[in-house]
Amino acid sequence: MSGRVPIESQRVDAPLTCSATFLVLTVTDSPEAVKTVRSTLADIDGLAKNVSIRDLGASFACTVGIGSDVWDRVTGLPRPAELHPFPAVKGAKYTAVSTPGDLLFHIRSERRDLNFEFEKQLLDLLGDSVKVVDETVGFRYFDVRDLLGFVDGTANPVGPAVPASILVAEEDAAGVGGSYIVVQKYVHDMKGWKALKAEQQEAIIGRTKLDNVELNDAPSGQQASHKTLNTIEDENGVEHDILRDNMPFGSSGSGQFGTYFIGYSRRLWVIEKMLQRMYIGEPAGLHDRLLDYSTPLTGTTFFAPSASILAGLDSD
Structural domain of residue 221, as residue ranges? Predict the structure, then answer.
């Protein structure tokens, strides 16, 4: 990536930025809806260049995700092997809800105005072919902390491990070069969280609050930390990472404070297993204690196809 040119379309590993907009849409039943969506997605790279050229140093990027319910209609292509609607996860106490969403636009840059301009032009092009389900504007909070006060994203892969963790390879011919995306919008009980001592908060998260040092896992059979429950291994003991690009969001005036979770993965089952462990527990019945203070309002799964697939959608 060069400072002289915009970030490539569909770069799921685009840099973390100071501002992001998470836009979830459904495709309407209007006669021209699918045609309009296809042509807009096919030219998403051009639209991004129109905006990003205004400040190449702002690291503007947009990643498009397509949901299971419209994949066939919008792309006309074979489905990625694991693509399916977000499955609600019901634990003994909490539920990861499943909510509608056909298209995701993960818009981010160092400047809020660039994100705003891109979203405005995008929705102008899509017109009545879509309906906005959720629009969340996130921001960087100090040294990449969430509003609970902890550093977020420490476990992200780095270097060569990034593409190996987030880009589908030859094991799934229909999805090569793409990535599965899961989004959840969480709101926090800040009053309840602040009532806890720092040591209690640290035991729930699995890291120290001030200096972000990883804590030892709880003994077997005891309630595990959020960090431990989100560490996923396969049957061979191989650990699998995902890329998180979470952002805090909130409004002091309305009293709403939250975290927008967005996870990119080469293997959808990895994120789904994380959610099973969080909501059902590991062992079963011992849920992630972070859920005592964080409630999911949404839950949707998408697939981000490669830039070449998007560009070819308007070729018919």
Answer: 19-312
